[in-house]
Amino acid sequence: MSNAAEPANIMEAIVSLAKRRGFIYPSSEIYGGLNGFFDYGPLGAELKKNIRDCWWNDMVRRRDDIVGLESSIIMHPKVWEASGHVAGFTDPLVDCKVSKQRYRADQLFFAPVYIAQFALGRGSVGEASPPPSGFTWSNSPIFYVSALETENVEETLKEAAREHKRKKSIPGEFRLGGIRDMTEAKPEEIELIPSPATGEPGSLTEPRSFNMMFQTNVGAMTDASSVAYLRPETAQGMFVDFKNVVDTTRVKLPFGIAQIGKSFRNEITPRNFIFRSREFEQMEMEYFIHEDADWARCHEEWIAWCENWLKSIGLPASHLSRYTHPKEKLAFYSKGTVDIMFKYPFGVQELWGIAARGNYDLTQHATASGKPQELFDETSKKKFVPHVIEPAVGVDRILLAVLCAGYAVEDVTDEKGNVEKRTVLRFSPRIAPVKVAVLPLLKNKEQLTNRAKALHAKLQKRYAVQYDDGGAIGKRYRRQDEAGTPWCVTIDFETIEQPGDTFTLRERDTMAQRRITESELFSLLDEHVY
RNA sequence: GCGGCUAUAGUUUAAUGGUAAAACCUCUGCCUUCCAAGCAGGUGUCGUCGGUUCGAUUCCGACUAGCCGCUCCA
To answer: What is the ipTM for the molecules in this complex?
Structure first.
């Protein structure tokens, strides 16, 4: 059961297998591909659908307190203003071309420096304190200084100015012009501002803003009034439709609204296969609770629920861990966020975020829309805005996790003692793209193929199954191993010659074989596929 | 967006300034009584565009995509 693949190459092997077996293709490949986008092939589409269905069934259908929703991908642009995405998604960045350092423009401060000189010119500049008698300030800045955001930016900048004066032997008093950050720099100033890394000007780029929301235009006109965004998260749909759900579905606190759907983020660096892509699918649920409810307990319950759900689709507990966001890094409205982490081959990464968001979102939308988002408390006779616990997970990240966790290359020793490699994807039967493969032992015996086709047709009504009569039986077993099919049933001579109508059931993980009847097979599937 | 490395069949890899090879996979046929058997066939515009050259898959440049490191990840 050893994992023969080198850890360093394991992602490469998984990407290669995913392509070869039809799980995942690069998007638009015949045109050279498109960075950050992927297509799901026949097996990938089944796998992904199964993950969605498991989640939807467990989260919505098998609970009495959660209802489903499908909101539109393009929503009113004001939704994203209220949610903070229009402002908060813009992170202008500045690069230093020499040191290759990158800074957030709003965290990189600069100031022009003026030097006292004899009063030869036409008066002082700016709003500075009066110059010493007999001197006036230089008309234009002699040089610029810069500093990263610290507790005392002004002092740091002054220190930098003193240092520069000393190095360049510039005499006289100095004063700083207004301190600004790089987002406020004029184009002609960029060249003059020194890089914090080198201390020399000329290497900084203009601030470039990376708003991660994809923009489009709605309607025939392409102007400012038609701008709309592809949603960067599905959550806002649940908040915006909160009152609709409350008014039309008889839900009572605590209750949740769940949604599965595509979201879009123009990521600067898509990386790690489908882990961070620009078009991805989210499964989010907003669980609304009373403002006086014990949110911390509810939060913990949802974290545990999510962990158990991940285990139920076959992710090993050994690969799961928790990361609690430090208080000081939380958004001001957040009471706490815990990420369930997964040990991917490329590192331990965020899989499922469970955030206690207070009533921030509903309050924002109430303010922005002018429509109160309140419920009435019959006990206290007061209106209140519910708080929310939000478990948010990416389908694609789960799919990658089950691919990585299930992938194994084993050494198999045959009867003659030869060691061969067996590649297998150990998907849980719940999510496996193919539940069972139906194989006639031999292709050229009609009795076998007829019985096999009949069984296949019967299974096909309820389950994703495959019929395969190509090549030797061993090869077909291995082919199903690579597709992650948990069981194969082989129609052999015992099936048609012995009483009992039994088949060979071959298990993927152990390669063990046993006899099984048709009704036993259906019971087996019924037990494990739900 | 920056730096380094890379791009040959579906996959993994060769060779070569004179238009390419192997294995595996896949498909068709034959054969095959339980773990990638065998035989016979089929499937390739060397990522794209341009430059140098009599001639470029090979050398150069740009672009696109991938990997690694920065950066980013509300």
So the answer is: 0.88
